[in-house]
Amino acid sequence: MNQTIDLILSHRSIRQFTAEPIAPQQLDAILAAAQSASTSSFLQVTSIVRVCEPEARQQLAMLAGNQPYVVQAAEFLVFCADYHRHTQIVPEAQTGYAEQLLIGAIDGALMAQNALLAAQSLGLGGVYIGGIRNHPVEVSELLGLPHQVIPLFGLCLGHPAQQPEQKPRLPRGLVVHQERYQHELDRDLLARYDQQIADYYQARSSNNKQQTWSGQIRAILGKESRPFMLGFLQSRGFNLK
C-alpha cells in the first residue's frame, strides 16, 4: 500500500550481523526516531544505555542467556524505565505506583519500536533481547543504573548477514474483537494456525524443530517465569503500591 506499511509488514528478527559499523548519522537518526515516539503525559520516563565496550557486551550476552548477537551487533541499546531523572527534578515526587511501572514499560516499547523501524528503513536489522531480565540485578550493576531505573530489554542493531523466513502471526480472527471480547476461542482457526507454524518450523532454513504455537505457549506458560521479578522491582522503587 505504501513504503511505510511494506516496511512494517516485512519485519524479521535479525540475529546475524556483518562486521560493518552503523554510521554515526544513521545512529543519530535512529535515536531521534526513538525519542519521537508518543509518551504518556509527556513524562518521558525512558532512558537508553548504549553499550560499546566489548567486555560489557560479553557480560551482557552471558547474563541474557548466552546470546552471541549481543556481542556481534554493531550497536546494543538497553531501554530502561527511568524515574530517577524525575525525582532529581521533583524530590517529593510520588512514585512507586504500579501505573507508573506500566507507563515506563509502554513508553520504552514505543521508543524501541520506533528505533527498530528507523533502522530497518536504513537497510539495517535487529532483534530485541528480553533476556537481560534474566539477571536484572547484575545488569543494573553493570550499567550503573541508579534507584528507580530498571532495565526493560535490549536491542541489537546492525547490518544483516541473513534473510530469515518471516514467522507467521496469529490469524486476525484470534486477535481483533468486534465491540466486545470474544470469550470462546475459535479452535478450528487455532488448529489451522498451529499447523501453519508446525510447517514453518519444519521448512525454515535454520533451527528446524517440531512444534506448534500452542505447544510453544504451553512450554512457556506452564512454568513460573522469573519469579524474582517482583522483589527486584520493589527493591528499585517500582510497583510498591
Automatic annotation (TrEMBL):
<protein>
    <submittedName>
        <fullName>Nitroreductase A</fullName>
    </submittedName>
</protein>
<feature type="domain" description="Nitroreductase">
    <location>
        <begin position="8"/>
        <end position="159"/>
    </location>
</feature>
<comment type="similarity">
    <text>Belongs to the flavin oxidoreductase frp family.</text>
</comment>
<dbReference type="InterPro" id="IPR016446">
    <property type="entry name" value="Flavin_OxRdtase_Frp"/>
</dbReference>
<dbReference type="InterPro" id="IPR029479">
    <property type="entry name" value="Nitroreductase"/>
</dbReference>
<keyword id="KW-0288">FMN</keyword>
<keyword id="KW-0560">Oxidoreductase</keyword>
<keyword id="KW-0521">NADP</keyword>
<dbReference type="InterPro" id="IPR000415">
    <property type="entry name" value="Nitroreductase-like"/>
</dbReference>
<keyword id="KW-0285">Flavoprotein</keyword>
<dbReference type="Pfam" id="PF00881">
    <property type="entry name" value="Nitroreductase"/>
</dbReference>
